[in-house]
Amino acid sequence: MIRSFGWNEFLILLRATEWTILLSLISFAGGGALGFVVALARTAQHKTLRWIAVAYIELMQATPVLMVLFLVFYGLGLFGFDIPPLIAASIALIVYCAAFLGDIWRGCIEAIPKQQWEASEALAFSRWQQLRYVVLPQAAKISLPPTVGFLVQVVKTTSIASIIGMVELTQAGRFVNNATFQPIKVFSAVALIYFVLCYPLSLWAQALERKMNAGRRA
């Protein structure tokens, strides 16, 4: 018997949304930690570190995230590692997010005027002290709008986890559609949930950007 799309089916989508949110948070937090290291390496004084960071960023940005997911999930499986879909998706998205966040934060660090570096150097600050007390606090403010904006992309990108069987929002939508054969209703509900997740973040990013621009004009 074919079920009709109703409240119970919508609750299934909402429960799957919890996994989408969890995967988004894991990916963003892990990617942020690794991306911070990448940003520091990209702006380091040592040429070797800069080249390693550049190579990593270019490779990840030129590779579809879906391919990264396949390499993690199926590639490690060839070596006998039975990785759950959540772990595989988390690893793939962390690696993906780190490249983009590292590049975003690299730009924010380099946006700090050269005079700030020279002034802190005149005070006999070490490189780490320059970053900690002078550069990074200013760069953090600049980075807020693009970082929040990228979080929207992370939430939407989690849908690729459905390819390897993780039951997040998109995969749950497919299951519900197979049971109800009402794709318009089902995927409209899925799109609405994604909208509710992403639109407030987009508004927040825009508000931060306007605030930053107003602060510069002042």
How would you describe this structure to a colleague?
This protein starts with 6 loop residues before the first helix and ends with a helix. It is mainly alpha-helical and 218 residues long. It contains eight helices and no strands. The protein has a single domain, classed as Orthogonal Bundle (MetI-like fold), CATH 1.10.3720.10.
Largest sheet: none
- Intertermini distance: 65 Å
Shape: elongated
Q: What is the residue-averaged pLDDT?
A: 92
Task: Walk me through the topology.
Blueprint: H1 7-42, H2 47-62, H3 65-78, H4 85-110, H5 114-122, H6 127-157, H7 169-180, H8 183-217
Helix pairs in contact: 1-2, 1-4, 1-7, 1-8, 2-4, 3-4, 4-6, 5-6, 6-8, 7-8
Quick rundown:
The chain has 218 residues and is mostly helical.
List its salient traits.
mainly alpha; 218 residues; elongated
